[in-house]
């Protein structure tokens, strides 16, 4: 059985998409980011907890503050990208659970009363949402350059608070010339899937 999704969409989202390291100077609009979020917010998370938080770095001053916390090799591309997003996990996501998971409002206290449990769940489910966000960026006809090479504690202190854990920084825009490396190999189905 083949996939139902149109092959062109499959290419756009996966086969032809690459991590971008260089971008054109075409701006990424608020409307584009809103459309991305309005699509990817439907991706599943445990208890619909949706702990991902997105901080858009738009001003030159904020960009300069962020670049200082990036690993050396990530600084030039972060400085030049049309838009940069800091993706973080909200470790107090459980406060929203009565509204987000009305089927079981008591989940807030029954499962997430302990901070270490919330942190683990927020990290896992935010990582899921970060992947949805990257695919959403691709669906908007843009490219993403996700990076984990940065001083997480510095970024947290500079842009977030003690209740948020930074996961990644994502450069966003239209890919420029030579924006990506050649496609790296992937594991074969037989190397990944085991049937028991």
Any overview of this molecule?
With 196 residues, the protein is of the alpha+beta class. Helix content is 41%, strand content 15%. It is built from 9 helices and 4 strands. It has helices spanning 7-15, 30-40, 60-67, 75-80, 97-100, 107-112, 115-139, 152-159, 189-192, and strands at 52-57, 83-90, 143-147, 164-173. The chain has a 4-stranded antiparallel sheet with strand order 1-2-4-3. The longest helix has 25 residues, at 115-139. The two termini are 22 Å apart. The relative contact order is 0.22.
- The percentage helix is 40-55%
Average per-residue pLDDT, rounded, comes to 96
Helical run tally: 9
SSE class: alpha+beta
**Amino- and carboxy-terminal Cα gap:** 22 Å
Largest sheet: 4 strands, antiparallel
In total, how many beta strands? 4
Order of helices and strands: HHEHHEHHHEHEH
Any chance you could write out the topology, listing elements then pairs?
Elements: H1 7-15, H2 30-40, E1 52-57, H3 60-67, H4 75-80, E2 83-90, H5 97-100, H6 107-112, H7 115-139, E3 143-147, H8 152-159, E4 164-173, H9 189-192
Antiparallel strand pairs: 1-2, 2-4, 3-4
Task: Give a quick set of tags describing it.
196 residues; alpha+beta; 9 helices; 4-stranded antiparallel sheet
A few lines on this structure:
The protein is α+β, with helices and mostly antiparallel strands.
């Amino acid at each position: 059985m083949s996939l139902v999704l149109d092959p062109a969409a499959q290419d756009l989202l996966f086969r032809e998409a690459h991590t971008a390291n260089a971008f054109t100077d075409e701006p990424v609009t608020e409307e584009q980011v809103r459309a991305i979020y309005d699509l990817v917010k439907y991706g599943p998370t445990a208890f619909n907890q949706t702990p991902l938080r997105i901080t858009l770095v738009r001003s030159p001053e904020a960009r300069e503050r962020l670049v200082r916390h990036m690993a050396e090799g990530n600084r030039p591309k972060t400085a030049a990208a049309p838009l940069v997003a800091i993706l973080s996990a909200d470790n107090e996501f459980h406060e929203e659970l009565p509204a987000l998971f009305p089927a079981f409002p008591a989940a807030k206290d029954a499962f997430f009363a302990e901070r270490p449990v919330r942190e683990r769940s927020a990290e896992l489910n935010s990582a899921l949402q970060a992947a949805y966000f990257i695919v959403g960026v691709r669906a908007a006809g843009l490219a993403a350059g996700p990076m984990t090479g940065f001083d997480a504690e510095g970024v947290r202190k500079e842009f977030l608070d003690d209740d948020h854990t930074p996961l990644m920084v994502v450069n966003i825009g239209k890919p420029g010339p030579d924006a990506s490396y050649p496609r790296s190999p992937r594991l074969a189905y037989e190397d990944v899937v085991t049937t028991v």
